[in-house]
Amino acid sequence: MRSFAAQFCSHNSKVKRRGLRPNSQHPGPEAGNRGNNLRGLKNKRVLITGGASGIGAATAARFLEEGSRVCILDRDAKACAAIRHQLPAISEAIIADVTDLMQVEAALADAIRVMDGVDVLINNAGISIRHNFLDITPEEWDKVIAVNLTGVFYVAQTAARHMMENYTVERGSGVILQTASTNGIVGQPYYADYNATKAGVIELTKTMALELAPKVRVCAAAPGYVLTPMQRAEYTDAMLDEVNRKIPLRRHAQPEEIAALFAFLASDDAAYATGHVYTLDGGEIAGGLASR
Length: 292
Ligand code: NAD
Known about the structure:
- The protein is of the alpha/beta class and about 290 residues long.
- It is built from eight helices and eight strands, in the order ββαβαβαβαβαβαααβ.
- The longest helix has 29 residues.
């Protein structure tokens, strides 16, 4: 069965969209009733950037299943309309571009108005472009940095200011979770700009965690290869098969598996988690040359 998140994808042929594909080896979230399994997510107010597609859309669905209230923020108006239709329980799909600080501030204010606050931010919007290091143009470099690093900073700082004003240690903490990547941990050809932004997200996460503790917990998820439209647009079937052969678990992740990590990290079950990066990659970066 095709995952719902696959439907929320607009395309830009040069922008890497790691494509969603059904995965028969993994039962997926439909296989079991897992609602309300994690402590503390019921009625949590969650804002998800890049929530109209791929990992963000799967994460929106997961938090709704857990009884949370969810707003998404995405620059793709068409995808926002589609996800409103697919997930009618969403409180709001806010159209905004994370590279524009004024739009980010207005979107945060919207989410706070609609949900009466934001407890959890999933800072997830991102793009990538597959190109040789020697061919990267200044415009491409700026574009990737603007979305993946500056945009992450704008959203994180705006949300953190709100959380720092509204949380006390006694009442529980706010949570900021950011989407990094294994590309921010190990080098990977053809994505030098993207890799640099994801390494930046990891360091941003650690520093924010130190400065915002104990009121706000801050963690990053570092997914390996995930079958979202991003991946599909730049990888042929042959390329996907080649990658799968090298991953110890022999497959890409489903977006719902990354959503499950976000749900855990946002929950009270992860109340002691802050300042770290949680890799979810099927073993992709566990080994060196000998493991390939
Ligand atoms: P996706 O393309 O399916 O979803 C990304 C969403 O972000 C889209 O809805 C898009 O409209 C939105 N977006 C892009 N630029 C934006 C902007 N400037 N303002 C607001 N919204 C914007 O991709 P995905 O695979 O779900 O990726 C989500 C995150 O996961 C990204 O940060 C990506 O780098 C990261 N990631 C993906 C993979 C993978 O293999 N798919 C692996 C590791 C990390």
